[in-house]
Design brief:
CATH architecture of the largest domain: 3-Layer(aba) Sandwich
Radius of gyration: 22 Å
Number of helices: 15
Low-confidence stretches: none
Strand order of the largest sheet: 4-10-9-8-7-5-6
Order of helices and strands: HEEEHHHEHEHEHEHEHEEHHHHEEHEEEH
Mean pLDDT: 96
CATH topology of the largest domain: Aspartate Aminotransferase, domain 2
Distance between the termini: 56 Å
CATH class of the largest domain: Alpha Beta
Strand content: 15-25%
Helix content: 40-55%
Number of domains: 2
Largest sheet: 7 strands, mixed
Structural class: alpha/beta
């Protein structure tokens, strides 16, 4: 038995991705963390470089990953329960740390129940497996995250049971609801809270107004589902996410511990009936090992911090640094998508120039993500900056200074 033939075929497939411009660049390897000092935020060391780098491509919005409270909680839980869970949840893989985390995130999101997964991606997949069926119709935003798109496929949702509405277009959403075919018992309207490449949010209050007009048409009603992975902990006056910002809850909330909370894992939050159905039907929950106790304990510590005075102080600095970056881009005559979220896109609108800017930023010790054709359509080429709570005014000035040199040079 040999992989010689398969290797050749796979090499050709990867080469095709490279020709199309869709291949991923080699992964940079982080070798060290340099704590904040002297008016600057943390820096990172990369393999093969003596330079220290400012990360503007991290979604650790509250900068909690290195917080002593999280490290101590993870260490204590590891010593009590071990490094791994040892089994899936229903075969004695559930510890008291899992239960504590689910109760804590349910309280934080204002729900009676929640269920933890090992990622937000598997949370969305598991939820779709729970809700899908021959009488379930799905309607989603055209810019939904890959996990929602993939969930429809893995759950075997046929084309005749799903529809897409134009991004944040309420009139088009209403049209899609009007066109739901006969024989449907439940409709699921699913969307991102924060659209991760743009930093804009779903208009939750207006979406709820549209869908509630159709509630009585279906045996199981119209259910709203929001994946707020980029919002939870980092958005809204209290850091409760897009619901907090918009002032209106959805029916089912999906989120992550891996962004603002700085740990690992995801969750589904909703009614006790929903959460029990997830436990019984979601393959991505049932058939894979859960988070380790250390992840759970660290996540509880992170939520506690986010819910207290320190979390509010970090959220305040996050907002101020986000405004500083957005105002600075405007002052430089650069284009962005407006909004208060710490995902700040710089619309470059040219593939070669986007790549040039990303290389120039790297040379200045700044890590940022460039999105170019064909990953995005021609004319939509973008550099995505992500502000974190540990960034300082000097850090944002460094980014703006580098951009000023690039656009003038």
């Amino acid at each position: 038995m040999s992989l010689q033939k398969l290797n050749a075929a796979l090499k050709n497939e990867v080469a095709a991705l490279e020709r199309e411009g869709r291949a991923k660049a080699p992964e940079r390897i982080i070798t060290g963390y340099v704590p904040p000092t002297g008016g600057r935020g943390p820096r990172y060391r990369l393999q093969g470089s003596d330079q220290e780098f400012l990360r503007m491509n991290s979604n650790s919005y509250l900068s909690l990953s290195n917080h002593p409270a999280l490290l101590e909680a993870a260490d204590e839980a590891s010593r009590r329960f071990g490094a791994g869970p040892g089994a899936v949840r229903f075969i004695d893989g559930t510890s008291s740390e899992h239960v504590a985390l689910e109760a804590r995130i349910a309280a934080f999101t204002g729900r009676p129940a929640a269920r933890a997964f090992n990622s937000a991606y598997t949370s969305v997949l598991g939820l779709s497996m729970t809700l899908a069926g021959p009488e379930t119709y799905w309607i989603g935003d055209e810019l939904n995250h890959n996990c929602i798109i993939r969930a429809m496929r893995i759950s075997n949702v046929p084309k005749e049971l799903r529809a897409i509405y134009r991004h944040n277009d309420l009139a088009d959403l209403a049209r899609q609801l009007d066109q739901v075919p006969a024989g449907v018992a439940r409709v699921v309207v699913i969307f991102d809270g924060i659209f991760s490449m743009r930093g804009d949010n779903a208009p939750v209050a207006e979406i709820e107004q549209v869908v509630r007009r159709h509630e009585d048409r279906y045996r199981d009603g119209v259910v709203t589902v929001m994946d707020d992975s980029h919002g939870i902990g980092a958005y809204g006056a209290r850091g409760r996410g897009t619901e907090d910002f918009c002032g209106t809850p959805v029916d089912i909330l999906v989120g992550t511990f891996g962004k603002a909370f700085g740990v690992n894992g995801g969750f589904v939050a909703g009614s006790p009936e929903l959460v029990e159905a997830v436990r019984q039907k979601a393959d991505t929950y049932i058939y894979t090992n859960p988070l380790g106790a250390a992840d759970c304990a660290a996540a509880v510590a992170a939520i506690d911090l986010a819910d207290g005075d320190e979390g509010r102080a970090r959220l305040k600095n996050l907002g101020e640094r986000t405004r500083q970056l957005r105002d600075g881009l405007t002052a430089l005559g650069l284009e962005s998508i407006p909004g208060p979220h710490p995902v700040v896109p710089l619309l470059v609108r040219d593939t070669d120039r986007t790549r040039q800017y990303v290389r120039g930023l790297f040379d200045d010790g700044i890590l940022a993500v460039g999105l170019t054709f064909p990953v995005v359509p021609r004319g939509d080429e973008t550099i995505r900056f992500q502000v974190n709570a540990a960034h300082t005014p000097a850090d944002i000035d460094q980014v703006l200074g580098a951009l000023k040199r690039l656009i003038s040079g």
